[in-house]
Amino acid sequence: MRRFFNRLSVFWRVLFLFVVLVFPMYLFSVYITIQGQNSVRSELLKLSESKGNYYISQLETQLYNVMRLQLNILNDDDVQELQRSDIQLQPSECIYKLNNIRNKLIETASMNMYIKEITVYLPLVGRKVTTQSILPLDMEEYLKFFKHSSIHDLPFSFIDNEYYINMTTDFSNQPVHSMNEPKLHVVSISIWKESILSEMVEIAGEDGSAYFISDGRGLDLAVQGSESIKKHIKDKFHSISLGSSLCDQFSIDKKQYHMFLNSSSFLHSMLAIVVPDNVYVKPLRVFNAWIWTLTALTLILVALFSIWMKSIIVHPLEKLITALKHAEDDTNNIRVVYRKNDEFGDVYRQFNYLIDRLKQLIADVYKKELMLKDAEYKQLQYQINPHFLYNSLLVTSGLIALGENDGALKLTKHLSSYYQYITKGQAGEIELIREVQHAKDYCEVQNIRFQGRIISQFEEIPESMAGFLVPRLILQPIIENAYKHGLKNKLRDGRLKVSFTEDSSYIKVIVEDNGDELTDQALSSLRHHIGDIKGDQFGTGMKNVHNRLQIKFKKDSGIILDRSDMGGLKVTLLIYRGR
Q1: Domains of the chain with CATH codes
Q2: How many C-alpha atoms does 78 have within 13 Å on its Cβ side?
Q3: Helices (H), 182-313
Q4: pLDDT tens digits, one per residue of 9-32
């Protein structure tokens, strides 16, 4: 034994010694826990039993009170007077008494939590009074409740899936009266089955179940249970007498249950509370957890010294390997801290220097990529700027030659605004509202050029979109394409419409015309060109706008081509603005 002990490493020796010291304490803790578990379980079983006894007693008291209130209504003066055949009441007196009865029903219903509805059937006056209304007597309904108003039907009659307590003024002689000539009035109280069910859920608990079993005159309810458990309870019900109680334990499907039976001769029912055995163990789990926690802490203390010994060599290497693995995915937050001045300290310092150099190289490459994209962006923008110059100078020259000085002046004003916009040395982005105003200047010039053949319409731009920054000259090339291709052969009634929509992620600027030139083949070809990275022939302006939007806003930004409801081309500038 000693040789075996001496062959063990220091780590296993210390661990073995601590286990020997902890084991008696562990056994003692288990013993205390088991004793406490038995004690607590016994108290919980007593609590469940007393809970059932209290509830059945409370329910008897409440329902006895319901029957007492019911007798008060049965013998009420107004009810008795309306049911007297020797008194002839005026219609107004009859209505007055019926309303009095209804008010008393409302007041009575509020006195007990188990009363759902009270109904008084008055056959001699042909009326049914409830807390809600006064209605003509339905003879079929009256006879149904009249049949269940015998003393042998108390306390409960199960009618139309509801429990009722029905009373007449003469329980014992009721069967003698002819069902074809009814005379007795009936007071029927509907019981809140849902209220009883909710209380049964409460006393059953989260994992338990509760049942009411009756002999035909009581309650027959169940919550949170299975048919196999209910069958077992019914077997027990027939073996005990009403008014007695019983505690039992049984097993179904290899699962243990505790059953608490409390019967009531007044209710003709038996309350059964069934609770799984593991419910009584749950409160003790915290103590078991503490035992395991204490054991784990002891073992951790045993292992700490040996772990510390290993950490001066193994841990630094693991730390370095982990940092190298993380460096493969992300170098931004990688930095190894080692405060000891030993060989591993030199290795860690060299590793941190290598990471810093790698970060610098990545930053340089990223900056170069941004510069290339910026150059491409400006190049695309410069391709657009000259397009409008040629046409505008030609139109101005023609107006001056024809002597239309007002038109030339108006054109010059819009041209001035137009070229002021495109020649300002501002940043590459501009507010959307200014880009729209620039497009309006362009359309005004074109309206002068086409002399009323084409009408342009701009909807009001929403305030939430007006200040959004966009690249310069993204709208004018789209409108220019409409004038140049879509509306070029429109001699009259040409229409150009610009509208704006938005949602939480995107801004949409829609340009559409009613041109007659767009065929399905041309639309398909144009769509192909816009999506073709290498295409550079037809639709250069629109392609430039598409590329610039993609470079600037990423995602699926760009332009979308469709046929407009107006008949011509519909161009949607889709701009992703984030969430």
Answers
A1: 75-191 (3.30.450), 385-576 (3.30.565.10)
A2: 16
A3: 193-204, 227-237, 285-311
A4: 544 665 666 677 777 877 777 777
